[in-house]
């Protein structure tokens, strides 16, 4: 009985997390322009009214690739200080210099607390950084990745080979579709689910609501774990006040 209660509490926390994400998204969507950017031949700058008076800028060494996929604008450029940079709809997704800090924390925390996880799902994460880290675990037998935008995967394989190398692992299965639809009929399947989504605009919008996290709840095994990328409370604190 104690184990059942513990498992229910664990899975309930996933649903509560979904509720918090939904609440944050509701306030941000109604109060702020979520993200804006500009770039010239020399600088790329990402800024937002959510953190007034601030911007994150990188000096551009060379524009390597730019296109508009079915879902979003995709940009890859080489910076002078952070290596190559992946940008989706004007929002920086990763830089070669410091991507490890994000991908390692997102992966190794849930994988360490989970007891010999065998079946793992990655939502989003088309760049492959999470997959690369998951492939380090011998206990893992199956890694499913559900990414809505195939262009992100293709671009990452070309320009970020050291990050996307996990796609070569035979345990990895790629599903190109909306994760919310993918999870509709999935129950009691995954030991760990990692939601490596972009921000709650564009194609990732369906991943920031209560309904999506209820599907996560159902897809997890009773003692499963979920970790999710969500908004930065330090930068997005204004909606709380």
From TrEMBL:
PROSITE patterns registered for this protein in UniProt: PABS_1 (PS01330), PABS_2 (PS51006)
Keyword Transferase attached: yes
Keyword set includes Transferase: yes
Residue ranges of every copy of the PABS domain listed in the record: 41-241
Active site annotation, chain numbering: 196
Record protein name field: Spermidine synthase
One of the Pfam families matching this protein, by short name: Spermine_synth
Gene Ontology cellular-component terms listed: cytosol
GO BP terms in the entry: spermidine biosynthetic process
One function term, GO molecular function aspect: spermidine synthase activity
Family annotation (SUPFAM superfamilies): S-adenosyl-L-methionine-dependent methyltransferases (SSF53335)
Record keywords: Polyamine biosynthesis, Transferase
Organism from which the protein derives: Plasmodium falciparum (isolate Camp / Malaysia)
InterPro entries: PABS, PABS_CS, SAM-dependent_MTases_sf, Spermi_synthase, Spermidine_synt_N, Spermidine_synt_N_sf
